[in-house]
Every structure is written in C-alpha cells, then in structure tokens.
Write a structure and sequence with these properties.
The chain has 553 residues and is mainly β. It has helices at 14-18, 137-140, 215-218, 279-282, 522-525; strands at residues 44-52, 58-66, 70-78, 88-97, 106-108, 110-111, 117-122, 130-133, 147-150, 179-188, 191-200, 261-264, 271-274, 332-335, 344-348, 352-354, 381-383, 393-398, 407-416, 425-434, 440-448, 455-462, 467-475, 483-492, 496-505, 512-521, 531-537, 540-550.
C-alpha cells in the first residue's frame, strides 16, 4: 500500500504569499473595476511608492491592464477616500512588454508628478488578459505599507555652486588626488549630523623637496587669493554671470535652444537673439470682462457631473469553469454627448462642454435603433470654447492607458472665433510627461488656422517652454468653423519611433493630408509610459469625440 503525504507550506515567501490575497490593496478596497471585474490576485506581487502629500492623501490603482503585448499599471492620488468629483492626480505609470517581463523583479515606475517614485513587482498571474479601470479609492486603495505620502524630499539635487543643472536620482561621488570624499559628522546648526566631506589632502612625500608646491597654493588661483572670498583686490575678477560660474579654464559657453535664432553684431561683438513668439505667448490671459460684461472672478464654476454607477453584472447561466475570460480592451470610443469626459484629467488650462453643433457620434453602437441615435438629442463637445480655456494653453489627458506605443488616437475638432481667442488651433497631444524640473513635455498632431490661406497641419514638440515644429504641410481651402478629423499613429522601431499624422475634412470631404511616418529618436521619446489627450493653445476649439485603438503596424 502506498501512502501519499501532502505537506502544507508553513512559511511562504513574501511574493508567493501576496499572490494568494489582494495585497497590495487595502482591506477596505472592493478590488472591483468600474466594469465590476475583480482584479486577479496574481498580477501584482508587491508595490512600494512615495509621493508628495500635497498631490493627495491617498494612492489607488487607476488602471491595470494585461494584454497580449504588455502589462501596464497607473497610480492616482486623491484627497479623500470617495474621490469626490473625480478630482484625482496621475502620479505614477509603467508599461512593460511581456516579452521582456520577469516575474518577481522590481520595476521602477515612471513619475507622472514631481517627487513621486517607487517600484512594482509582477507575479505569475499574467496568463489571462485583463483590463480594469478604477475611479475611486474605495475600489483599489493601496495599503499604507505599500504606499505612503511624504512631506517633500530633504535633498532634491546635488550640484556645484551656481551650477543650474543639478544631479538627481542615485548619484555616485568619486574623487581624484588631491581631493578626497569621506563620510563623517560635523556640527551643523548646533547638532552633530552625518555629512559628506570634501577635503584637499597635502601630499607629504615630497614636502622636503625644494620644488615642493603646496596643494593649497595650487588651488588658490593665479592671484594667490580666493575670488569667492573677494580678497583678490580691485578690480575684482568676474566669477559668474547671472549665477552661472565658468569652467576650469574660465570660459562660459552659452547654449541657445528652442525658438532662439542667434546672430552676432559685427560692430561691437554683442549677440542678438530673435524668437518667433509674440506678446500673447508670454503674457497671462487679460483680466478683462467678457462681451457680456462679466469679470472672470464672477463666472459660475463649471461642475462636471459625477459618472453614473456601472450596471450590475448579470448572473451567469453557465458555471464559472465554463465561462471564458473576457478582457475589456481596445478599441475605446467616447463621445461627450452626455456632458461627461470619463477618465479625462485637466492638467493645463480649462475644459467645459459646448452644445453648439457637434457632429454625429462615431461611438454609437451599430445595434442601436435610429430613434436611439436620433439627431433630436442635443450633441455636446468637449471644448475650450467657454470660460477661460480659450485664453490659455489647455490640455486634458486620458488616464486609463499607461502607454503610447502601438496606439492610434483619433478625434474630430472645430476651431471657432468665439470670445476673441488669439490662437486658432487644436489637436491630439501624446507622450505627455512631467520633467524633473516640473515642466510639461509632449508631442502634438495639430491643425493650425492662425492663417487660413494657407492653414497648416503639423507635428510639433512642446519642450516645457516653447513649441518646436518638426514637420508640416501648408493647406489651402481650410476654414474657421469647419469640422476636421485628426488621427495620429505611433509605432516603435528598433532605434526610432514612427509617428504618422492624418487630417481629413468632415465639412469639406475633399481635404485629406498625411504627414509621415516621421521618425523620432527612441532616446528622445522614452519613457513610453506616458499619457495622451486633447490640446488647444489660447484657442476656442471643440472636440467631438475621443477614440483609441491598438495598432501593431
């Protein structure tokens, strides 16, 4: 007779243990997505994140997606546990191709908000596709062990004095003779504190040599004094220009970037800078009444309606073992006819809703009857046409998708002359991220009608300060008040990222323009774990719908 002994594992490894429970979710979280789909326990084995407390008190999963090509996660911050008014802030995101993914390895998040950082560990539960979007901490609140806010980093960077480009992240310090770097304690502000100590060390081997030169004399400078102490006598040497200090050779190199066109004045050797920016690009929106005599401070606030609760999942007629796993995946299409911009977060400027004359929605399901999509229903657009949106740069990003590779985005826009907006443009922004300095950076497939004879369809890059035009085509016959469809497709290659932009006329079907594919350097485009959305710059622009699809080529 054979006896089979089954032994229980008494002490499971941390990651394995987490795959048998809802960690890193809090016990108070339901773990159910907006579509009432429960997040599988084996997708995330561990997570550890920190973020600035002013971005939000609580962190929760905004989306989790496992597709045939990649796994992605976004993390949002909220000021309260019920996320009143959908007021969340994207803080972290990550997308990892399945071909490169290793289970139980720590992957660093890509920061979407300055001061946010952390890592995530994926488990073995990636065999089945899953897509879950969460709009409230009550669904996917992260436990305090895995996610805690901080009051601000004590040291944000390391640099030489007056150097404007500090080192950030993990910094390794090395030194060469006669300089040394050691760790020690020093009395700072009345308390003994650990410190990094930079020292000059005298080489004593040749101290008896007649030609010996002290290291302190070598580093004292040509005048034998210290310029930073202003003891070299008059006239004092120039040590810096606008807080920028020279290199070891005493030279300061000026590097002009962005919109600057640099010229040299032959008469006196001065430098002339010219930038194709006007006053409207540098000034704040005017604090003046509207045509109706209403001051900006007197305008009624626009309150977006709370999204309705999802319908309950119907009771299945089959056993759970017989029901196939269904993934909520792309394509995704949303119109704004219900005056709701689901999962959009306004990161710049102001958006509202306009019912002037939106086009028929392409998001209507083919099974709907004619009466359900009848033109008598008021058609709304997501718009910068009302309020202060037309006087400033406005950007609303769509938060559920944490990657822009293998994506095609589509929208329909109409540019108007309402409210005296100085700009006349609009388009699709993609690969939106926030730099370490806090500047927003992204690419835009944009229609610009500042001049309509010709107008211009272009691909531009916003570097946080100004727009850099990459490729464009001038088009005759464009008109203010007409509807146009814009699409942009992003396909990564080995060392580049191919971007193709499409413009098609809706009001005038004779307009069809394709830009690209235009190759961007992968080094300039990464990280891919960023967001996409709708953009207008000081323009009264209407967006009829938003469509996202997965494209492999």
């Amino acid at each position: 007779m054979r006896v089979r002994l089954v032994m229980a594992i008494r002490n499971q490894q941390w990651y394995n243990l987490n795959e048998t429970r809802d960690y890193p979710l809090s016990d108070s979280a339901s773990a159910l997505s907006n579509d009432n789909l429960r997040i599988p326990q084996g997708i995330i084995s561990d997570i550890k994140i920190r973020w600035p407390e002013w971005a939000g008190k609580y962190a929760f999963l905004g989306s989790v997606a496992v597709t045939s090509g990649a796994v992605s996660v976004t993390v949002l911050a909220s000021q309260d546990l019920v996320n009143t008014g959908n007021s969340y802030v994207p803080i972290l995101a990550l997308s990892v191709p399945l071909a490169e993914l290793e289970s139980y390895r720590q992957y660093a998040f890509e920061s979407q908000y300055p001061g946010s950082f952390g890592y995530v560990v994926f488990g073995e539960g990636l065999l089945n596709n899953y897509t879950g979007v969460f709009s409230s901490p009550s669904q996917s609140l992260l436990t305090s062990r895995a996610a805690r806010p901080h009051g601000g980093l004590p040291v944000t960077g390391l640099s030489k004095i007056y150097d404007q480009t500090p080192l950030t992240g993990l910094v390794n310090l090395t030194a060469q003779d006669p300089l040394t770097i050691t760790k020690g304690t020093r009395l700072i502000s009345g308390a003994q504190r650990e410190a990094i100590i930079f020292s000059l060390v005298e080489q004593t081997d040749d101290i008896d040599n007649d030609n010996f030169i002290s290291v302190f004399e070598t580093f004292a400078g040509n005048c034998g004094k210290r310029p930073e102490s202003e003891n070299c006598g008059n006239p004092q040497p120039i040590t810096r220009i606008n807080e920028v200090s020279p290199c070891c050779d005493g030279s300061i190199t000026l590097d002009f970037r962005g919109c600057s066109v640099v010229g040299k004045n032959l008469d006196d050797g001065s430098v002339v800078l010219e930038c194709t920016l006007g006053v409207n690009d540098t000034c704040e929106p005017p604090f003046i009444p509207t045509l109706e005599g209403i001051l900006p401070s007197e305008k009624e606030p626009v309150i977006e309606p709370v999204p309705p609760q999802p319908e309950p999942t119907p009771t299945p007629t089959e056993s759970l073992s017989e029901v196939p796993v269904i993934s909520i995946s792309l394509p995704y299409c949303e119109d704004f006819e219900d005056q709701e911009a689901a999962y959009f977060s306004t990161v710049l400027g102001e958006f509202s809703f306009s019912n002037e004359d939106s086009i028929d929605s392409p998001c209507v399901d083919a099974s709907q009857s004619a009466s359900e999509s009848d033109s008598e229903v008021e058609k709304y657009s997501y718009s910068t046409d009302n309020g202060g949106g037309r006087y400033t740069r406005s950007l609303a990003v769509w938060t559920p998708d944490a990657q822009t590779y293998f994506r095609e985005y589509e929208t329909a826009i109409k540019i108007t002359e309402n409210g005296g907006a100085t700009g006349k443009n609009g388009g699709i922004a993609f690969n939106y991220r926030v730099s370490d300095s806090g500047a927003s950076q992204f690419w835009i497939a944009e229609l610009n009608l500042t001049s309509t004879n010709p107008g211009r369809f272009r691909l531009v890059y916003f570097n946080g300060l100004t727009f850099v035009e990459l490729v464009w085509q001038d088009i005759y016959g464009l008109a203010i008040g007409d509807w146009y469809k814009i699409r942009v497709k992003i396909i990564p290659q080995v060392t580049t990222v191919d971007v193709t932009c499409y413009l098609d006329g809706i009001t005038d079907s004779g307009i069809a323009v394709t830009l690209g594919p235009y190759s961007l350097s992968s080094n300039d485009y990464v990280p891919d774990s960023a967001l996409a959305g709708l953009h207008a710059n000081q323009s009264a622009t209407m967006f009829s719908y938003w469509n996202v699809d997965e494209k492999l080529s």
